Request: fold
Amino acid sequence: MVDELADYLRQGGRTLLIKGLPGSGKTTLALHLLKTVGGSRGIYFSSRVSDESMRKHFVDIHRILGEKNFIDTRLDLAENFLSQVFESIRNKPPIVVLDSWDAYAKKMSEIERLKTEEVLITLATSSESSLVFVGESIEHTNLDFLVDAIVEMKTNLKADLYGK
Amino acid sequence: MITHKLRGKPIWRNHEVISLYDAKMHTMDVYKRPEFAKSRITLADEDGDVFLWGPTNSISSSGV
Reply:
């Protein structure tokens, strides 16, 4: 399914939402897609982790992300972050990852969030870049209806499949 | 990993077990039957002499 997901993004699926609780593998999946879809041209926006600690935790990351492709937006305001996303999509990277989208969205009001999500989705569908939202909430939001694909990461999947 | 939505494409397999060992995605086979779930009773081979009720459509047409 992971490879099918990468194929889906390569073949025109423009937006993907990755949901899950902390430690469930959202960032690992996002980096895997960044590698398989983007090669070395994907862009990674980080609102939680610095470039240094990402490179410490993910040893092979230097093969996927160059220094220019990692954008640290931990202290950025929502407007500044959005202008950076617009700017990066203009250069037509194959894939752009927003990790995590909820960290930015929490800084906005409800109406601002809805408008921003619609703008980002429209931008992605009218461009040649795939946009990957990494969410921190497993609840259903308006974004669920807008994106092309939704994937949820769970840590106790084995228990669900074979019974507890 | 659970795939909830894939707009425009059918989802053939919505659950997949992934190991995050070494901070990489390792796909595992979800549908492999665990040993404890396998039956220890072996079924007998089909015997032609065993009495059969006949085809199921004849049963339904006679109203039995």
Observations:
- Chain B has one helix and three strands.
- Helices of chain B lie at 56-62.
- The beta strands of chain B are 2-6, 17-19, 26-28.
